[in-house]
Amino acid sequence: MSSWTCNISKDRIPSPSVAHKQTSPNSIITHRSPNSQLAIPHSLSMAPARSLAAAAVGMARARARAAVARVRGGHGGGESRWTSDGTQERPNGYLLNRTPLQPGESRKWEDWELPCYITSFLTIVILGVGLNAKPDLTIETWAHQKALERLQQQQQTVAADAE
């Protein structure tokens, strides 16, 4: 098994005056060391940490804006093939867009609610009873029963030999 190591010596690290030189993005900065000469494009050279952090923050901000625009339903404005602005003027703040009932008024059940509630209740009862009444078919239980049978046979043979 081979291991990979990285040795960095001070003579390979470019001086700050060379690394932070203001050049065009396509220019090449050459870092010289006693052993080799390294040519690195300016865009890949060692940039100040502050500018890297600023670039990362800017990229994250742009991605967040794009994600929010997708969640809100579009590419920035107007209708698209898959989404529309909708008909509601503004959110009214009620769950499932239902207004509260007047005092003393009861809510009328919809036609799907009673069958759904009955089916859900029966499912819970059947599963509760069925799962509690199922036989124990684990290998530990089987081995325990076989060990008890062998012990009974040994006791019977010992009792028969004693007589």
Topology at a glance:
Elements: H1 16-19, E1 28-32, E2 37-41, H2 49-71, H3 113-133, H4 139-162
Antiparallel strand pairs: 1-2
Strand content: 5-15%
* Overall pLDDT level: 75
Count of individual beta strands = 2
Unreliable segments (pLDDT under 50, ≥5 consecutive)?
Answer: 16-22
Structural class, by secondary structure, is mainly alpha
What is the element string, with H for helices and E for strands? HEEHHH
What share of the residues lie within helices? 40-55%
Ends apart, CA distance between termini: 70 Å
The tally of helices reads 4
Sheet having the most strands: 2 strands, antiparallel
Spatially, the strands of the biggest sheet line up as 1-2
Global outline? flat
Rounded to an integer in angstroms, the radius of gyration calculated over CA atoms is 38 Å
Task: Name the descriptors.
163 residues, mainly alpha, 4 helices, 44% helix, flat, NADH:ubiquinone oxidoreductase ESSS subunit protein
Could you characterize the architecture of this molecule?
The structure is a single chain. The chain has 163 residues and is mainly alpha-helical. The chain has a domain of 39 residues. It contains 4 helices and 2 strands, in the order αββααα. The protein is flat. It starts with 15 loop residues before the first helix and ends with a helix. About 4% of the residues have low confidence. It comes from Dioscorea alata (Purple yam).
Concise overview:
This is NADH:ubiquinone oxidoreductase ESSS subunit protein. This protein is mainly alpha-helical and 163 residues long.
